[in-house]
Design brief:
There is one protein chain. This protein is of the alpha+beta class. The chain has 5 domains: 147 residues, Beta-Lactamase (2-Layer Sandwich), CATH 3.30.450.20; 39 residues; 91 residues, PAS domain (Beta-Lactamase); 71 residues, Helix Hairpins (Orthogonal Bundle), CATH 1.10.287.130; 145 residues, Histidine kinase-like ATPase, C-terminal domain (Heat Shock Protein 90). 50% of the residues lie in helices and 21% in strands. The protein contains 13 helices and 17 strands. The strands form 4 sheets. The chain has a 5-stranded antiparallel sheet with strand order 2-1-5-4-3. It has a 5-stranded antiparallel sheet with strand order 7-6-10-9-8, with helices on both faces. A hairpin with a 2-residue loop joins β8 and β9. α1 packs antiparallel against α4 and α8 runs antiparallel to α9. The chain is rod-shaped, with a radius of gyration of 63 Å. It binds adenosine-5'-diphosphate (ADP).
Length: 551
């Protein structure tokens, strides 16, 4: 703005200056020329009177020094000239002013000198004898006047330049001050210049539009945040320079990272090679998928490039917690391996015994013994297959049993009745104490888990030992506690006994499948119950089932 004002002032000042110069020089020059002519006319008339009276003697005696005086005879011959020798001068009859004077009585002419700087003004007067007296005066030409004026004009121009600079500085500061003082967020009603009204009006309407857009954006962002924060999947949106544009809590949790700093790179959230590869692949325009393992958790990353108008602008990363899936996958693999192994042992035994019998290597009196072996192993196989079926049903969401109100006392009595023979063989006494309320559950599952606990309590007991089933009602729910005085379970094995096919000590194994406690754990979970274990090697174990109260 300052520049424009400066240019405007300077242009105006110079224009005025030049116009004045042209005008003054033009007017003055014309005026001076008229004055010179006037003076020449007077002087000519005066000298003419002298010549008329005294002739050549007047001219020769006077010795004129100022103007140039030329006296030309009527035929054009120069009779007298105060600057040059008349004899050496050419005829003057063709001179414009002389011709005019001869014709009209007087004549004037202005001729440029050989240099542009000067010009000569001539005035000629016809005398009574027909001769012509001419006076000439030199005068500065317009160009000379202009050149002479140049120095002061340049000075004035410099002054004008400085003045324009100073004025531009002050004016622009004064003009801009109220404009700068306008509050763009709320310009108010009072305006320093009414010319600003349209601009301020537009600012107001644009402010309204911006506020409306900001509100809409904020609302959308809040909606987006509300949706993404409730997602169990992690979401990361990044730009081409890997800067995090948007993230949710699940993403940070799955990557084990803290809140990223402003404009932080996504690679700072996780240093794993797989994660970096995913980001790089997505930013190279390819879809990528990787499995990240961090401690106990497994998470799958899906990275997709984001393109806009054919140009890659960033990437979206979705993270899914697949810990449970991976764990199930591992369990399934282990389970398959264990099942194959468990099935192979009795089948090998059956095959071997059958081969011996087939080849007639068994004496008739031993046949029943070998057949008994086959029977036992086959029973073990059936027991194993039955347990696997029970477990897989629980895995699939439970067997097709009806939920009913079940009396735990009746179930416990039934179980102890079934185990009476086995307990007698093992010289273990069975007893039942206390009472509790009924629970809601599937009767077959309730019976199965109490049976498995009591069966183990007898199987892992010592001769002369005891098994007590205690029923009680507590704040937490209905409790069934199976206490034995058997071999107990070492502390380090206590957490693992509920795993499939886990046995503390194969030599102490009751010949069970290793799936009994696993069925207890899954069955209890299916019924909404909980299992607790307390055990001390050589002293015995206590398994407690806590059922929720039936309402
Ligand atoms: P199993 O068919 O071998 O009995 P379980 O799943 O029922 O399989 O039990 C797993 C392991 O836990 C057993 O092999 C045994 O070592 C241990 N166990 C279970 N119950 C008891 C108990 N009452 N006393 C001591 N050890 C037990």
């Amino acid at each position: 703005m300052k520049k424009q004002i400066f240019h405007a002032i300077l242009t105006v000042a110079l224009s005025v200056l030049l116009a004045s110069l042209v005008l003054i020089v033009g007017v003055l020059h014309g005026y001076f020329q008229d004055r010179v002519l006037e003076e020449l006319a007077q002087s000519t008339a005066y000298i003419a009177r002298g010549i008329e009276n005294e002739g050549m003697a007047y001219l020769e005696s006077s010795g004129f020094r100022g103007s140039r005086i030329t006296w030309v005879d009527r035929d054009g011959t120069v009779l007298y000239d105060n600057r040059e020798d008349p004899a050496a001068m050419e005829e003057h009859a063709d001179r414009e002013e002389i011709r005019e004077a001869m014709l009209l009585g007087h004549g004037t002419a202005v001729r440029q000198s050989t240099t542009l700087a000067q010009k000569t003004v001539y005035y000629a007067l016809r005398l009574s004898d027909g001769s012509v007296l001419r006076l000439a005066e030199t005068q500065y030409s317009v160009w000379m006047l202009v050149i002479q004026a140049l120095q002061p004009v340049t000075l004035v121009m410099v002054l004008a330049f400085c003045l324009a600079l100073w004025l531009a500085e002050r004016l622009s500061a004064r003009l801009v001050e109220p404009i700068n003082a306008i509050d763009l967020t709320d310009p108010g009603e009072e305006l320093a210049y009414e010319e600003l009204a349209p601009l301020v009006g537009r600012i107001r309407s644009q402010n309204r539009e911006i506020r409306r857009q900001v509100d809409t954006l904020r609302q959308r962002q809040e909606e987006f945040h509300a949706i993404t924060s409730h997602m169990s999947e992690g979401l990361l949106v990044i730009d081409r320079e890997t800067r995090v544009l948007s993230h949710n809590e699940a993403a940070l949790r799955l990557l084990g990272a803290g809140e990223p700093a402003e404009e932080a790179s996504v690679l700072e959230l996780n240093r794993e090679g797989g994660f970096r590869r995913c980001v790089e692949e997505a930013l190279a325009g390819h879809r990528c998928e990787e499995l990240l393992e961090r401690g106990d958790t497994c998470c799958r990353v899906f990275a997709n490039p984001v393109e806009q108008d054919g140009a890659l602008t960033g990437a979206v990363l979705i993270l899914m917690d697949v810990t449970e899936k991976e764990r199930r996958e591992t369990l399934r693999r282990e389970f398959t391996a264990n099942v194959s192994h468990e099935l192979k042992t009795p089948l090998t035994s059956i095959l071997g015994t059958a081969e011996i019998m087939e080849n007639g290597l068994v004496r008739p009196e031993d046949v029943s013994h070998f057949a008994g072996n086959i029977h036992r192993e086959a029973q073990r196989l059936i027991g194993l297959v039955n347990d696997i079926i029970k477990l897989s049903r629980l895995d699939e969401g439970g067997p097709a049993g009806q939920w009913e109100t079940v009396s735990l006392r009746t179930v416990a009595e039934g179980v102890l009745g079934q185990l009476a023979l086995a307990a007698e063989r093992k010289q273990v006494s069975l007893s039942q104490e206390g009472d509790c309320g009924p629970v809601r559950g599937v009767p077959q599952i309730v019976e199965e888990i109490i049976y498995n606990l009591c069966d183990n309590a007898v199987a892992y007991n010592c001769p002369g030992g005891s098994v007590t089933v205690t029923l009680s009602s507590g704040g937490e729910g209905e409790r069934v506690t199976v206490t034995d005085t058997g071999i107990g379970i070492p502390r380090e094995a206590q957490a693992r006994v509920f795993e499939r096919f886990y046995r503390v000590d194969k030599s102490h194994s009751s010949g069970g499948t290793g799936l009994g406690l696993s069925i207890v754990k899954h069955g209890a979970a299916y019924l909404g119950a909980r299992v607790e274990l307390e055990s001390e090697p050589e002293k015995g174990s206590r398994f407690t089932l806590i059922f929720p109260k039936s309402t």
